[in-house]
User: Fold these one by one.
Assistant:
Number 1:
Amino acid sequence: MKTKYQIIKLSERKAPIKGLGVKLLKYVLALFLISFSLFSFSQQEELDNYLKIAAENNPGLKAKFNEYMAALEVASQVNSLPDPQVAFAWFISPVETRVGPQRFKVSASQMFPWFGTLQARENVAFQAAKAKYELFEETKSKLFNDVKAAYYNLYFNKKAEEITLENITILATFQKLAEIKIEAGLVSMVDEYRLEMEINELKNQLALLREKEQFLKVVFNNLLDEESNISVLLPENLWTTDFPFSKQAAIDSIAIFNHQLLSIDFQQAAFAYKRDVANLAGKPNIKLGFDYTFIGKGENNLAGKDAFIFPSVGITIPLYRNKYKAMIQEVVYLEAAKTNEKVSKINLLETLFEKGWKNYLDANRRIELYKTQLTLAQKSMHLLETEYITGSKNFEEILRMERKVLKYNLEEEKAKTDKQAAISFINYLMGK
């Protein structure tokens, strides 16, 4: 059964950078991100639908969501008082008192932690749950990026099949032309042999692409947790939309919205509250209770008077201070480790972003380059065809140009998929 996630937001996310200017930047970036996410090209509707299926079905994402929901339940556990204690004592040899013998005694007590301890524990649990939620969001963003990458790979593989098949058809036409010229004695059989070898190589390449298509479909459908035999609807031509933000805006967005960094922020907040818990652990706990003693009949058959003592008060004495000092120092070390982890993560994200940005710019350049190169190659091919028909050109030049047409056609499509994959990866880093 497919389940839609109903996310419970604990509170508004805290930005790792303070200041009015940064807050303004945060809201402006959020507005742009929301606007961009709502703007969808008709060509992308199928991909958007696949992303929705992945969000509902992917078992890895469901696991992270369940971990988040489990973390929410911890708060209800840690903010509760310890269970009350009830004791019953039966006097085997009744203790004689002035009013009669003591038969049995019932006592009950409740331990109360020091003031603020339960609230501090609850704060730790809530911050830990927020960190789990950000990890869920991180998993979802990564899943969407993986789905898009697999979708683009399927698209390129399909276009490669179409382009290869088209080139086989073109070479088959040349083969018929070569046969006519051979019969007329204008060229030798070498031209036909070359064409036959070229066609055989392209057929082998086409077979490999079709085998690869099955593998890519399995990868894609596993991300969606769908049956591998379900067909994937692909666009006739991949969209070539540009990245909508500047480089600096993307960097700022990563610093504010990246889910890995937000998770670390919430973990740091949890350690701050955990330090409070460690401090409060060194305070005494207070115990309140009562005792009830049943008095039997005394001498001369006089009815005994039961004894009721309330309240009884006690405290725990946190005598061994080294234990509590160690608890506080443990949290200090964990906070320092988490701070260093965040610096390391920022450096890694910066490296990944620069790589993704380089790939984006490179793909943009390649699209323009191969579009121009393909146009020139097609024009050259047309001229060589005409010259070959008139018998003034060697067939070797036609084959060489045909390979360039095939190469530039494939490279242009590869550049288009690389561009969209780079945009998707940058959006993933931005926490979009």
Number 2:
Amino acid sequence: MTKQELVAKMQENQAWLPGKTVKLDFGGDEGAVLLDGKNNQVSESGDGAADTTIKVSWADWEAMANGQLDGMTAFMTGKLKVEGDMSNAMQLQGVLAKLR
């Protein structure tokens, strides 16, 4: 899946947290995606402030989205880092479920 396909699928499945902004920062060339639950949209640019920023590699994100890597395991092993409101990160499983 490409980043553009991810954004389209997230938008279609309303994969955001209502009233919250969460940035998925994939680093490197992949950049970031902003899940804007305040405006009910997903943007590919990932620019702007967020309540929570989740830093994870693209490969680990795909593994999580496919159910091959548990979010808590990724966090505990340092594959996923959280900046900001941790409670938003805890709700990430619900977002991932919308992608399956």
Number 3:
Amino acid sequence: MTYEGFATQPIPMLRERVKINLRQRTVDFFDYGYGDYDPQPLYWKSQVIDASFHDYDKQQSFDKRLSGLNIPELAEGHGPSLENLTALLRINHGLTD
């Protein structure tokens, strides 16, 4: 998987995924944002990084604060698109630009 902004953004966006099926000897490429699939945000990034990652503590704090907002869509599947999350935060939590 390739994420745009993985090292710098609290919610990086999935841009490319490669699926390898060893049994069938096939490789599938999925292009997010530039092809047939919409980019997917990576929520809860602190679960896939460790303490040696730059700004690990900041990411954990961000994820904890996001979790505390009790947004039901974040608990379902991949979660909302980044645009929908922004709209939810504006409506329900007073987010401003």
Number 4:
Amino acid sequence: MKKRTDRLNSLLKEVLSEVIRKDVKNPHVHEFITVTGVDISKDLRHAKVYVSIIGNDQEKSETITALQSASGFIAKTASKKVVMRYFPDLLFKLDQGVDNQMRVEEILYEISQERNKRNHKPSQEDEEPSH
């Protein structure tokens, strides 16, 4: 059963990505959106759809709200491409993973810069002798 849900999650991820990109015509859905994962429930009735959005907090919030309000349309359109007895109800969630990764990289860069500053402080030997 685990393999089946993994395959279904992967298939739904691809199909939902395509539907959101090609069929959703809502101006509040940010153009820089990626479906990063789908987690379907054991009974196949519900699916959490994780999306990553490049934009500010307001754009992210508007996109999640717009996707949620269009979830019926998205499910109906996607159901024509995936043969399932029941197509799951969709719940859209913001995937914070990309934001967290970018923040970690930013912090690591700052640490690296600070180290470089400390390692390049002129020692007394490098300074010009004072007369």
